[in-house]
Amino acid sequence: MSSCVRGLWLCLSLLVAGAAQAARFDFDSAGGRLPKEVRPSHYRIALDLDPARSSFTGRSDIDLEVRQPVDAIVLNAHRLKPIAAQLIDAKGASRPLTVVDIPERRQWRLATQPAAPLAAGRWRLVIDYEGSVQRSGQGLYRVDYQAQGQAAQMLATQLEPGHARELFPGFDEPAFRASFEITASAPAPYDIVSNMPAAADSVQAGRRTVRFAPTPSMATYLVAVAVGEFDALEGEQDDVKLRILTARGKRDSAAYAMSATKQLLVYYRDYFGLPYALPKLDQLAVPGVRGGAMEDWGLISYNEGTLLFDPQRSSPRTQQTVFGIVAHEIAHQWFGNLVTAAWWDDIWLNEAFATWMAAKASEHFNPQWELRARARRDKESGMRRDAGAATRPIAIPVETEDAVFGVFDELTYEKGGAVLSMFESAMGPDTFRDGLRRYMLAHAYGNATASDLWFHFSQAAGRDISSQIGGWIEQPGFPVVDVGASCVAGRTELSLSQSRFTTRATGAAPTTWQVPVGLSSGRETRSLVLGQEPVKLVLPGCEPVIVNAGDAGYYRVRYDAEASARLRAATATLTSIDRIAITADMAALAASGRLRLADYLEWIAAPAPRSASEWQAILSQLEAFDQALAGTPAQAALRRWGRERFAPELARLGWEPGRDEEQPTLRLRNQLIDLLGRFDDAPTIERARALHASGAVPPSIVAGVVNAVARHANAAQLDALLAERKAARGQEEVYRLGHALSLVRDPVLAERVLALTLSEEWEPPSAAWLAGQVGPGSGNTELGWSFMRQNFSAISAKASDWGRLWLLPSAADGFNDAARADELIAAQEAALGEPGRDAARQVAERIRERAELRAREGHRLAAEMASRKLGVTPQ
């Protein structure tokens, strides 16, 4: 091991000295709303906590540098009540401060009384305050749960993007990095954890007080505190102390995540050329309330269902999810924590790189999962959004606090990760990694911008790459590459051109990109960059030509008739990943009207030894077409076709998993059961009911089985599902059953499920989520939409700040009538105004896309399917 492992901070301070001059981050010009005249260097935060209370008290003691004289100190605070504030000078003299709350900016203004300017220099700001414990998974929040049959409570934090100001008053913007020294007290039975190891731990008068070692310089949103009664699975890797903290009785389910953590710490250390920076890494499984995970430095928190894996009860999908999310959050310990985006317009630097790195690590350690195929399906979510009118560039200006929520989306994560993967392929893996290592070294314990990253990539590549990659980050959308191929005198004359791909004719700007294109034919492979001008070239032979070979690119490909016919004839000889990419492009071309839907179905009906991952991608595409065609003759024809094709495939696989089956096959079986239940296949539904009633459902198909049962449930079966959810032993089961309940088709029963969201039976965030899912999931969108509009105030009170923006859009997301898109926009504007506009625009665009597809295919598809005789059993 390098001598820097334990002394990383000192080593980097010496190494960075020569590299820092290349940095383009500038504190004074970094984005934000706070004035830059006052800058924090160190926080001492003291918190008095109790999971039984709905409030807490605290003290924020901040070392400040006043860089030039100011009349007042402006910092962030929200949902906090000031008790006392004072300013202490270098000699220890104290001045009382008055606090003026500016709620619309989530700021406090602190000034001396009588008013007097503060001189430049070093000061200490001390604020005593009181705060509120939240129930919606943000700020400091409480979790009520059951542990070993007993009621229990936990406190945890979610401070990104702008919720640190709900835990302590401070300079809550990414550029205001500082070190933190946390002290927290709670009733003695509870454990208390934070970012760093405990420096002191004492119990007095029934209360435990823990003082934690100071953190390195970091952003406010990475501060973390948790209070609860934890079981701990302990480990160690590279002298880093590891713990996975769970609710009592669940420690054994943390073993898989611990194994993954050890693998990942070594992998990332070697990849980045820098070891993990802190002496310990805790990972906390939160049994409810919080969504997803949060990469807090040294104390990552997860929803329990994304961290714990029980080999006897969990599904294969959960195993992949756990590895992928752990890989994502641990990648953030370098990309995001060690080096932090200067402002939220560059948050993609954090999230896209963690997405890309997690996919790379997951594929490295789990090649049997066929994750490259899975990556294409993830990329599709970004491309679907990016092809519509509601897209945006990956990097956008973020002017307001509420606008921050809009950048945590599929364009930041999936598109960003896919673009990085494309340029890794174009630059070469070694050059790409060299650029990342330079970037990490130059900006460790600091902030950076995209320009910094382009600089270091260019240094590694020996050429300026900023203009090529910058267009993909700074422009919305992506291209479709049109391919013309002709066989002339035993050679292939190939032409390539690009234009912007859009799902609808929306008048989008005719943008072009510098497109890295990989070509593959039977005799050779080539790489080129396609710009504004078309490219013509000649390839030997007349074999099929694949553009975007290996699916490295973030663009669509449209082949002319001759090129397409050659590919169709050679379907069986293509690689699985190339077939997946071609199929995905054809599905998108059909959705946009550039191809008839029957052409897409004919392609997937072509005989070929398709992998399990290919069929999974196809089933997802069919589900999207089924939703768009709801209520038309084409939907009935598509469902009948799906039953004829895929019931035999399920019969071939059988319902019982084989002893040595790989995960793709296990997941395909589950998805077939789910799709056939959706497509009303009576034998599948009856088999699922019988298996569910037996209580002996294999974990690999439990989701598909319970979804099939729920969709077609009667009153007694709904009661059984509700009882099953109430008795669920973990968040994986809770969410699986919650999703199933959103699918209940009987309108009377769907109304019962909706009514539950207004009760106390469901945790507030889960209730808000379910209320938005029932209409689209069950096919009763009108029912769910009306319920949401009538009860918006009550449901929004249960949601987080981010979740509130999506309540109305989620409830409307099953419509396929363009008039409903306009209705959604108007309703969201009335309910939330500007903050909710982006979420409504995204879903409104999806509704319009479905409406156009329904208008094109709603009546012609059935006739075309019959004339082309597409009912052929899959190979």
Topology:
Elements lengths: L7 H12 L18 E11 L6 E12 L6 E4 L3 E9 L5 E9 L4 E6 L8 E12 L6 E9 L2 E9 L20 E9 L3 E4 L3 E7 L2 E6 L12 E4 L1 E8 L2 E8 L7 H18 L7 E7 L6 E2 L4 E5 L12 H17 L6 E3 L6 H18 L5 H16 L23 H18 L1 H15 L2 E3 L1 H12 L4 H9 L4 E10 L2 E10 L14 E6 L4 E6 L4 E6 L5 E2 L8 E4 L1 H9 L6 H16 L5 H9 L6 H17 L4 H21 L9 H16 L3 H13 L7 H10 L3 H12 L4 H11 L5 H10 L7 H15 L2 H10 L1 H5 L4 H5 L1 H6 L5 H15 L4 H21 L2 H9 L7
Parallel strand pairs: 1-10, 16-17, 17-19, 20-21, 22-28
Antiparallel strand pairs: 1-2, 2-7, 3-6, 4-5, 4-7, 5-6, 8-9, 10-13, 11-14, 12-13, 15-16, 18-19, 22-23, 23-26, 24-25, 24-27
Q: Would you mind describing this structure in some detail?
A:
There is one protein chain. With 875 residues, the protein is α+β, with helices and mostly antiparallel strands. The protein has 28 helices and 28 strands. Strands 3-6-5-4-7-2-1-10-13-12 form a 10-stranded mixed sheet, with no helix packed on it. β16, α2 (255-272) and β17 form a beta-alpha-beta unit. α15 runs parallel beside α17 (702-711) and α18 (715-726) runs antiparallel to α19 (731-741). The longest helix has 21 residues, at 633-653.
Structure characteristics:
single chain; about 900 residues; alpha+beta; ten-stranded mixed beta sheet; five-stranded mixed beta sheet; 28 helices; globular; disordered N terminus
Briefly summarize what is shown.
This protein is 42% helix and 22% strand. It is of the alpha+beta class and 875 residues long. The strands form seven sheets. It has a ten-stranded mixed sheet, with no helix packed on it. It has a five-stranded mixed sheet with strand order 15-16-17-19-18, with helices on one face.
